[in-house]
Amino acid sequence: MNKRNILFLLLAAVVSFGALAQGHKNLRITEVMTAQDSTQYGGTTTGWVELYNSSYHAYAIEKMFITNKKPEELFTQANRDAAYAREKVRDNDAVLRYLSEAPLKTGVYMIPRGDERNTNLGEHGQCVFVADGQIQNGTFHLPFEFVPGQANYLAVYDVNGEMVDQVTVPASLKAGQSYAIKAEGRLPLEGTEHNGDFEVRDGSSIEKAITPGNFNTRIKNENVEKFHQHDPYGVIITVIAMLIVFSALILLYLLFKVFGYVSDKSLNKNTAPAVTQAVETPASTATAEPEAGEEEIAAICMALFQHFNAHDEESGVLTFKRSGSTAWNSKEQMMCPAPQRK
């Protein structure tokens, strides 16, 4: 493999790091309601949970797990089976087996396959699961219900049994209120209980709006506010932008120089022997051939003279000879001659 291919492979690897860095761990629990207010939602009191894709590309959430069982409960259930202990599998494998084999009544729900149009979350997409215990109603219905008046735990596991996100809804949450990511906050680290980043919403204002299936309802951008505080005249952001642009141009210049150098080296390496041979061959043949004599020179001169003087000069005068009779005034010329007898 030459240097050019190695450089292209390294460049492709660097570009692919961004795609590999985003995966199922970007699926976040952003809002939970344990019980709806029957006066506001048409008589239903069923709770729901909102999941949010915080990445910049789409991926399917099918075969992932949603459960209201805490990790210690899952490990306890998984370790009860002697087969898990004998095989000495990893914790994630044990949990994955339990999640996959657990009956629905245990509070574990595997998002089914076959509904790719709805379970394939797009960039910054959301979906809402209803905790009504009625999975026969569709893909987005959980096999368990939240219990109002007590703390409700909720966790999401990846297809390999690894924890993706978890949250504990406080027992003080009333009916008609939701437990959601703060409107002015950032998404917390994945896989951690981020109760400090949540707040109670009651729908009393735009800051406290309850928005199932619509996570992007922030009233202002915290990054813009920070820049306005630390850089009111935009000097820092201007310098940063110029540095980024010129750094990108310098990097492109260096890349083109490296690629050009490698290409020149490879071309010179492939064409140098042929050029040497082409130059040396006429020199060797020219010294070996004898010089032309007087007879050969005279023959060449005569051949050139005959070539350039091959045609006689014409007068340029056209002569037409007229006939006394034509087919028009002498019809006998149009008759076929009579056959001759032999």
- Rounded to the nearest angstrom, the radius of gyration is 44 Å
What average pLDDT do the residues reach? 75
Low-pLDDT runs of 5+ residues are 17-22, 82-86
Biggest beta-sheet profile: 5 strands, antiparallel
Helix-strand makeup class: alpha+beta
Outline type: elongated
Figure out the total of helices.
8
Instruction: State the helicity in percent bands.
Output: 25-40%
| Alpha-carbon distance between the two ends | 92 Å
- Percent of residues in β-strands: 5-15%
What is the subunit organization of this protein?
single chain
Word description of this protein:
This protein is of the alpha+beta class. The chain contains eight helices and eleven strands. The strands form three sheets. A five-stranded antiparallel sheet has the order 7-2-1-10-11, with no helix packed on it. Strands 5-4-8-9 form a four-stranded antiparallel sheet, covered by helices on one side. β8 (152-157) and β9 (163-169) form a beta hairpin. α2 crosses α4. It is elongated, with a radius of gyration of 44 Å. The termini are far apart.
